[in-house]
Every structure is written in structure tokens, then in C-alpha cells.
Amino acid sequence: MSELGPIFRALLRNKVGAFLLALQIALTMTIMVNAIHMIENRSSMMARPSGLDEANQFYLSSNGYAENFNERAVVEEDLRNIRALPGIVDVTQINAIPLSGGGWSMGLQTETGEDKPSVGVAVYFVDDHGIDAFGVNLIAGENFSPTEITYRQRNEQGWPQNIIVTEAMAKELFPDLTPAQVIGKTTYIGGDEPMTITGVIDQLQAPWVGWSGVERVMLVPQRTEFRSSRYFIRTEPGQRDRMMKEVEEMLVAEDRGRLIRNVRTMEETRDDSYRSYSALQTILWIIVIILTIITALGIVGMVTFSVNRRRKQIGTRRALGASRFDIMKHFMLENFLVTSVGLLLGVGSSIALNIWLVDAFSLPRIGWYYIPVAMVILWLVGQAAVFGPARKASQISPALATRTA
Amino acid sequence: MFSYYVRLALLSLRKNILLTGLMIAAIGLGIGAAMTTITVNYMMSSDPIPQKSERLFHVQLDNWSPNQPYNEPNEPPDQVTWLDATNLLQEGRAFRQAAMGGTSFVIEPSQAEQKPFIASGRATSADFFPMFDVPFIYGRGWTANDDNSQNLVVVLSKATNDQLFGGENSVGETIVMGGRAFQVVGVIDDWQPRPKFYDVSTGPFNEVEEVFVPWSLKEPLELPLNGNNNCWKPVGEETFSAFLRSECVNSQFWVEFEDPQDADNYLAFLNNYVTEQKKLGRFERPLNNRLMDVMDWMEYREVVAEDAIMMMYMAIMFLVVCLLNTVALLLAKFLGRSGEIALRRAVGASRRDLFLQYTVESAMIGIAGGLLGLVLAWFGLQGIGGLYGDMTEGLNELDLTMVGFAIVLAIVSTILAGLYPTWRACSVAPAGQLKSQ
Fold first, then answer.
1. Chain B residue whose CA is closest to A298
2. Contact A312, A400 (CB under 8 A)
3. In angstroms, rounded to a whole number, what is the distance separating the alpha carbons of residues A149 and B372?
4. In A, which residues are within 8 Å of B304 by CB distance?
5. Number of CB pairs < 8 Å for A and B?
6. Are strands B180-188 and B153-156 parallel, antiparallel or unpaired?
7. Closest Cα partner for A298 from A51, A50, A18?
8. In the sheet that A228-235 helps form, which strands lie side by side, from edge to edge?
9. Which residues of chain B does A16 touch, with a Cβ-Cβ cutoff of 8 Å?
10. Which domain holds residue A86?
11. Which of B72, B387, B395 to mutate to test the interface with A (most CBs of A within 10 A)?
12. Number of domains chain A contains
């Protein structure tokens, strides 16, 4: 390590150049750490399971427009017909589609009174086939029975007696109880209307992927007569695309005074909902990669210059007995020093930027391991970038020392 | 003299073509990334109706629960109730005013081969069209009289008119919407304010509606709501009329003044109105009504997406790295030419001459980098369009302002980047350098 002294003194002859490089490395690290943190953050949000059997599910919407549209009869017949098709696992009428962005929410509370705190929850109106069509698991209590399914009118205000909630919702309402203990508990909707939890399902997401309560859902045993509704359909594995065509053809075959629209798979819906997430990830990846390349090329350029300026000194050192390896080591060590200064600065600025991002955009904090990982990567990038010019420097002939220009 | 500097600069740039290429590429990439994200932000935050955005005001009334604000700390709801929108419309205290809300219709085309389809709609009042300078190809908006008499009239978007009437003048024709015959009174030309400022509740960059009908039809026809509805209090009776008269907010109300100063008077009127309503047992919170002009409202509703802002900061930092890179490289390059500089100084070039010459050289890198950056920004914006799909339609276009800005940004930042290296080069002492050779 005795070389460090001369290397350091040589660096001081171009203080500004070295400092600029260090600054560039510090900023590169700052951007890298925070961009990758954002990418990871989005990935973890996209990886949250919806609870559904997404690969085998699709839905469509049915809008009645004719004066004589008999919604109750049409829906019951449709559901019966769809269920009878071979390849269909189950189907339910529903008011909103998980992950789709549009839906209905209410507040539930454990004590009556408008001034008591309530927990926001997404509402799905489904029938006794809901759980099966979603492909979710009942972990406590019972499914709705066919006899308790009622019809809901457009301006109706009241709520049925029984509901099924997700485990996350049960935990939010009754933090100390297990799912089995929650069965039979009463919650209040709209301030004071009681409802009994008769079942708990493991997992199901709300329509809004950006909502902090996305895991909080309740199933209400009602079919809707809003003239506009959706059918949520689950097929046997691999049968989805075939069934989409068949179901649509069957439903439009007869003019019932309604429109069938929006026949879409759950996979498309997921892609749409998370499109801005994956777009942001792609853009940040591009920025990080190009940035690293530019910084590396910048190092190559700088070292090439400094080698060219010091050709004579290098020749002299070689003539005085320095080996090729010594010359290489000089430049590698020089870069290591500059990079280290940059990375030390970078640790501070990465954390500072993260604190600001946490503050301004409510992003979570970075994990501690981002810092050492980014440091190691940038050390390696720096060494790799310096390797080429350093090798060239090592090939300078000792005879150069004897020439005059 | 200037052309001589340009020639010298070209010579010097060509002598080290790889390095020149690296500097141009770095500037180009930095400018490209920064311009791509700045353009998206610029488009998102642009004034959708610049000729009168200072005279158009959005109304907020605080009818929320006495126990908690609509939003912390004490923000009134983003929308108003149907009842208040209707009342304020009737009062008519501003130069122009429009109540509005989203809805939808099933349209049954008269031609048998066309299938019925669903169209997005907006129920609003007559002033909507002159207030927002809506351009018409055929006919015009309906009149206040149509509003008052609940006439079944409709204004179509250009696309809807193309679909139903093949683009012909359809004024006076009737179309069947929701089972009723509406008379067409006007067809709007292509019109897509970005952001769609008059109603951002379901997304600030959504498409303009396909049909417009009088606000007064909402109650008799029980027009469905297409938009957000928020309630803090149970509606009570199970009828559409009770729902409209509830404390649920689902409508928007805009006013236009001839002079922005009139806003104070109008706010006083609003406060007065709310005080009167308090006597009926409504508006239990303290007075908290707001009037905001278009740009204030856009800022309040944060129409510029957080992701876009974050990306812009990242891209600007990226540009800074690229510039640091350029400063370091130019410094190394100019210092490497100390001998040449000393020689020119010795034969009579002044510091000023050298300074000019090196500034020309860095400016040339800036121009080349700026042009490359523009091309990259164009590709970047196409890429954003591809990644985000319809969401960014109309937001990923470079306009002349942005092109000019990009070039200026590139040149200015490169000259700044070249400033220190140039200064260092010029302060080379001729004697010392010549001697050491």
C-alpha cells in the first residue's frame, strides 16, 4: 500500500478533474439506488396476490336498454345457461371487477354512531356462486346459501343480514380475533345498520390497486337490478379463450334488449391496472443502465487522457524498473481512490434523496443493503472501465523516457 | 474570425473523434431523457383554456359531515351536490354558470344494420358551450329556454355524428337515446382540452363526452351517474329524487366572470347562500367555500401525476451527470493541449481570442448534442406512448416551444459545462509550457 502516497499526490495535480469524476460517481450512485428502490417498490406492489384464479377468468358486461328488459329473468337465465356449458367452472353476477379501477366502497364499524371510526371496504354483490367463481378459499364460517340471495334495486339503501369478508378486513375490524372467532360478530354499515359476518375468505383484492386497503373486501349476497351488471366467469384450466367466444356468441344470439360489451380477461385487466407501474419500471431501468454506461465511458475517456499526458512519466517509471503490473496497478488504484471518494459522497446523497422522496411522494425508505450493493457494483464498473486504458499504459515502452517529445 | 474558430473547432473535434462522439452522446442522452420527461410534465400542466382560464372558477361548498372533514386537515369536497348545483344555477349570479355531471346513454341508431351502443354523456346547462369556447361544426348549443322547458335536445361530438350520420349536418335530426327521441341542435368540432379541466374526478386526461344534454333532464329522466359519487350521510328515502336531494356530492359547478375581481363578490354570495341553507339544517360545518380559477384548481387536484414528477427529477439528475461527464472530459482535453495553447499565446493570440475559440468548440458539442437529444426525445416520447398506451394520448407530443427549449437547454448547459475548462485553458502561462518542451 506504499503506492497510495504517490498516487494521491499525482491526483492532486488534477484536483478538479478527480473531484468532478467523484461527483459524477456520487450522483450516479444516488440515482441508481433510488431508481432501483422505486422499481423494487413497484414490483412488490405488483406481486401482491389478488386471490383470484386469474389465468382462467374473464368477465363481460350486460346493459339493458329496451323498455321491456326483464333483468331478473334475463340474468337468471344467463347464469343458468353459462353454467351449463362444458368448460365453465362457475359464474356469478357482480357489480365491479377486482383490480379494474371502478367499484363501490362503504365503511364498516364495530360500534354504532356516525362519529365512531369506520373501516373502508370494497363491496362486491355476488350470489352463492361468488366464492367458487373467484376461486378463493373460505377459511372460516359458511358460504351464502341459495335461499338468502335477494335482489337489490338501484336506489335501495338497506343491506342484507349476512356478509362474508376477507381475512384482512376481519383483522382490521377485530385485530385480536382469529378468523374463526370473527364468525357471528356484528358490524355496522352506514353508521348503525347491523350486519353479521358469516364467513371469512383468505384473500381477494378490491378494484383499486393503488388503495392502501386493497385487501379489504366484503361480499354481499345480492343480485343487482341496476340494468347494468357484469358476469364474472371462471373456466376449466386452458379453456378460457374458447369459452370467451362461446359465451359471448350464446348471449348475443338472442335479442333480449341488452348489450353485451367489454368481454375481457382478468389478465388484461391486471396488465391495464399496472401498466403505469411497469412503464415507470422500464423507464427507470433504461435511465439506470444508460447512466452506468455513460459514467463508465466517462472514466475510460478521463483515464485515456491522463495516460496520454503522462506517457513520458510512465516511460521513465518503466525505465527505472517498474513492471507493467505496477503501471496498471497505479491507474487501477487511482480509480479506486476517486471512486471511493465519490461513493462516500454518494452514500450521503442517496440517503438524502431517499428522505426527500419519502417526504414528497410517500415512498418507503430504502433497505440498508441497497447502499453496499450499489457501492460494490460501481467499484466493479470503475475498475472494469479503467482496465483497458491502464493496460495500454502498461504497454508504453521504457525507451520512451529517452525521447525528447 | 468566427468561421476560423469554427474551422479550428471542427479540426480539434475530428482529431479525437471517439471522445467527441462520447461527449455528444452523453449530452444527447441527457437532453433526450430530460426533454422526454419535461415534455410530459409540461403537457400535463399546460393551460387547457389559456384565453380565459383566469376568469373561469370552480365552486366548492363544504356540506360534509360535522364530525370529520372531507379530506384532512379541513378540505371541502371536490364536487357539489345536485341540489346545490341546481340552486346556484337558478340564482344565476355570475356572468355565466354551468352545472354539470357525467352520465351515459344507450343510443339506438335508426339504421337497422347499426347495433345499439353506449355513449358517455354530460348533463349540463346552456352556458357550458360559450363558457368553455366549445367549437361547433354544425348548429350550436341549446338555449336557457331549452334548459327551463326540459326539452329533449342533444349536442353530439364529431365522432358520434360521424358514426350516426356519416359526418353530415345532423342539426334538426332526431336520435333515440335511452328509449327517447332527442333532437340534435349542434355538433362539436374536435375538442379535447388537456387536462379535461371541467371534470377531473374520474381522470384528468379522459376523453371528452360523446353526447351533451340539458342539466334539467337529469331528474325527470333519472339519468344514471357516470362519475364519482361520495356520501357521508344515508340518503333516506329510496327514490331517485331523494338521492338527488341528499348530501351526496356528484356534480360540478363552474362560473365565468367578466373580470376576475368579481370572484370576491361571488364568494360572498356563496357564503350567503350557505348561511341560508344552514337554516334548513344543512351545512353543519363552519363556512368553508372555495372559488378557484382553472390553473389553481388543476394544481389543487394534482393533475400532474406523481410518477411524472419523479421521473422528471430522475431525468434532470441524469442530465447533470452527463454534464459533469462533459466538464471532466473537456477539462482533460483542453489541458492536454497546453502546449498548443501556449504556442498560440506566444505568437500573439489574446486570452479573449482563445476563450472565444474554446467556447465555440464547446457550443458546437452543445448544438450536436441538442440535436441528438431532440431526436432521442422524440423516440423517448414515442416509447412513453407505447408503454402507457391511451393514458398519455396527446401528452407525448413535442411542440415548437419544447423544441426551442431543448436546443437552448443543450447549448446553454454545454457552454456552462465548457466554461471552467475554457478558463483553465486560457490561463495557461505560455512561457512555462514552451520551456518544458
1. B325
2. yes
3. 65
4. none
5. 136
6. parallel
7. A18
8. A88-94, A228-235, A57-64, A258-265
9. 331, 420, 424
10. 66-256
11. B387
12. 2
- Of A229, A256, A283, the residue at which a domain comes to its end is A256
Of the candidates B128, B140, B119, B299, the one whose C-alpha atom is nearest the C-alpha of residue B198 is B128
B321–A294 CB contact, under 8 Å: yes
Residue A45 has which C-alpha cell? 406492489
A15: which residues sit within 8 A by CB, 6+ positions away? none
Looking at the fold, whether A104 and A224 belong to one and the same domain comes out as yes
CA A205 to centroid of chain Cα atoms: 14
CB count, 10 Å around CB of B249?
26
Asked whether the beta carbons of B187 and B179 are under 8 A apart, the reply is: no
Strand pairing class (B117-124; B211-214):
parallel
Indicate whether A303 belongs to any domain.
yes
User: Euclidean distance between the first and final Cα of chain B, in Å?
Assistant: 29
Do the chains contact at A294 and B322, CB–CB below 8 Å? yes
Question: Which residue has cell 372559488?
Answer: B291
- The residues, ordered by sequence, that sit 6+ positions from B220 with a Cβ below 8 Å of its Cβ are B150
Residues 6+ apart with CB under 8 A from A133: A57, A89, A90, A91, A92, A126, A232, A233, A234
Whole-structure pTM value: 0.85
- A228 CB neighbour count, 10 Å cutoff: 21
Rounded to the nearest angstrom, the minimum Cα separation between B428 and chain A is: 14
| Count of CB atoms situated within 10 Å of the CB of A150 | 14
When CB atoms are compared, the residue of B22, B117, B331 closest to A17 is B331
Cell 371496504, residue? A121
Which residues lie across from A359 on neighbouring strands?
none
User: Which residues pair with residue A165 across a beta bridge?
Assistant: A200, A218
DSSP class per residue in B23-37: HHHHHHHHHHHHHHH
A302 lies in the same domain as A221: no
Q: How far is B69 from chain A (nearest CA, A)?
A: 12
- Cβ distance A278 to B310 less than 8 Å, yes or no, reads no
Instruction: Identify whether A269 is part of a domain.
Output: no
Q: Could you report the per-residue pLDDT of B417-430, keeping only the tens digit for each? A: 888 888 888 887 77
Same domain, A165 and A212: yes
Is A200 found in the same domain as A79? yes
On whether both A360 and A250 belong to a single domain, the answer is no
Are A302 and B329 inside 8 Å of each other by CB? yes
Residues A28 and A71 in one domain: no
CA B170 to chain centre: 32
pLDDT tens for chain A, residues 1 to 405: 566 777 777 777 778 888 989 999 999 999 999 999 999 999 999 999 999 999 999 999 998 888 788 899 999 999 999 999 999 999 999 999 999 988 888 889 999 887 788 899 999 999 999 999 999 999 999 999 999 999 998 888 889 999 999 999 999 999 999 999 999 999 999 878 999 999 999 999 999 988 889 999 999 999 999 888 899 999 999 999 999 999 999 999 888 888 898 899 999 999 988 988 999 999 999 999 999 999 999 899 888 888 888 888 888 888 888 899 999 998 999 999 999 999 999 999 999 999 998 888 888 888 889 999 999 999 999 999 999 999 999 988 888 777 765
Residue A207 sits in the same domain as residue A320: no
Rounded to the nearest angstrom, the gap between the alpha carbon of residue B177 and the centroid of all alpha carbons in its chain is 32
Place of cell 453496499: A372
A68 → chain B, closest CA residue: B179
Distance CA B253, CA B275 (A): 19
Residue A123 lies in a domain: yes
Residues A40 and A73 in one domain: no
Measured distance CA(B37)–CA(B310) in Å, rounded = 9
- A34 contacts in chain B (CB < 8 Å): 314
B318 touches chain A (CB under 8 A): yes
- Which of left, alpha, beta for B291 (phi over 0: left; psi -120 to 50: alpha)? beta
* Cross-chain Cβ contact A259/B235 below 8 Å: no
